[in-house]
Structures are given as structure tokens and as C-alpha cells.
Amino acid sequence: MNESQHFDDDNVYSVVPSQDDEYGNNLVPENNSIVPNVQNQQQQQQQVQQVQHNEEGNNPVNYNNSEHSNPEPEVESDRPDPNKKATKDIRVIIVQDLSGSMDSSRTKLATGVNEFVGELNSRYEAPCDFAAQICLITFAGDNIDVGKWMDIHSVPVYTRDSFRCNGTTPLWRTCKIALDKVKEECGHCTTAVYAFTDGQDNNSNGVTSKDVRKMIEELDPTKHTMLFIGSDDNSGTDAESAGIPRHRSLNPTEEDTPFAMRACTNTIARCVTGETQTPEFNNDDILSSEGSRHTSAQSAQSAHSQPANYGQNNDDLPEDDCVPTIRRVMSSGGRR
I want to staple 281 with a disulfide (CB 3.0 to 4.6 A). Which of 148, 223, 254, 285 is the partner? Predict the structure, then answer.
């Protein structure tokens, strides 16, 4: 059973699909202990889960409530059929920024990584003739922690306490380490590097985006790719300077982090099931992940272009001049 997950500042929540595969409102806090995801899958299959209730008693926690900062948007599937298994081996390297500015996003980060791993877990669940491995590389100041390769079924469940944030941002130096790992250890296996950051490089000891660009150009594009997800206002420019094309980069706001993490999970699902040769973002992924940024830009442009005597209500504006509402779509492993 695939899960969708909710984000808030204190807990990592899972949404349990109902029997007809519609998304219900049963929210279950993730276990704070670090246990293999495969154990969680077995528990899910047994449907032994405790529903968290709100203070009023019998009602499940509803995250469409305005008191929560990250309401769940309408869910539509943008992934292959959840029963479709992987058709290739894959290795994934997650390069994760843990500099001091990431501290407020730790729960969102843990939830997104857990969903990403959970998606691969289900795609490679027996019977499946292929295997997936993941490696987590984190950076915080002068501390770059290069994890070991883990079989996807033995990856721990992450919590906010799994990630300690402090220090500066050696972004390009860490990306170089990841790309060296691809070159030296991944051979002919399909491999994707996902780099996540909320800022710009300020501690790479001379390694630049141009160095990373050169390394990317030397990769086999049919096997090895790098995707860049940056929430800084200049992240789009950073991706371009590193030679990362638009269909492999996202520039969400911090508010859009859950959507961007969901988009990354979409890309890996489509890749391992054979819909795409390598992971890449489609237009829906980009639109849903950057909705707030584009809406803000469109609002500013519209406000700048309107005569001063236009009213505050859109009813006062000509229909063609109303700022369009971007429909936010979060994909899921379940089917609507």
C-alpha cells in the first residue's frame, strides 16, 4: 500500500488510503524510532495503525483545517499504476543541505525523504527481479557526511531528529563528491543525484558551479543524471550555471517544499517503471512545485500593469486581467 504524507512543524504524518483507494482523512503520526521501512510496510499491510484524534474526541485530525500551515491540496495521480513494479536497477544519491537555515524545514525534509524511499520500496517489493540502492550525503559547514549505499528495503525511517542543521553551505564541493561517486561506483547502472538546498554556496574551497558543470557534461546522459532543487531566489541561476537543464531543476519557495519533494518522488517512480529513461520533471511537477513563486510574480506583474483606479476586488477588473489561479496538484501512489 502506498502512502501520501502531510507536513507540519512538529510531526510527520501519513495518510491512509481507504479501501476504494480514495484518499481519506486518517492521519497517523510516523513512529519516532528509526526502524526499517520494510517493517512499516508490513505493518501497513496488516492495517494495524492507530488513528490520531484531535482534542475534541472522536474526529481524526483534518489537515484541510486552516489552523495548519500546510493544507493538503487536491490529490491527483501523476505516477504509474501503484501495482507496476520496477523494470531496472537504480542507484540514488541524495545530496542534502543541512546548513543552519534548514533547521525550520527538518520535518518537511524527513517526510519527503520517507515518501521517496517508500515509493521505491513498493516498486521493488517482491516479486521483482531488480534492486534499488540509496546513499545520503549531507553537508553542514565543514562537515560533509558521505553515507554508505543502503538497499532500499533497509533504509531507516527518518524523523526531524535525524537531521541536525548548522553552519555554512558547501554546496558545490558536496555535489562534486556525489558526482565522483557516480563516476567511480555506478558504472552502467542508472543513477540519479538529487541535490537539495535552500541557499547559495559559500564554503566550497574553490570548487565552483563550473567544475560541477564539467563533471555533469562527462556523464552518460542515458544513465546518469543530476537534479537540482533549490528554494533560494537565485537557485534557478545556480542550476543554469551548473549546466542543469530546466526539466531537471526546481525552484520552489520554502512553502512549496512538500510539493517539490512530491515531484521528486514522481520522477523516480516514472523512471524505475520505464516511463522515462532517466528521472526528469514534467510540466505538472514544475507547476505544482513552483506555484507560490509563479503566483507571486504574476500578482506583482498584474498589480504593476493595472490603472490606479481599479478596485481591490477582481469583480472590478476586466475578465482577461484577473490574475489566474494556479491549480496545485500533488501526485500520489494511490489512484483517484
Answer: 285
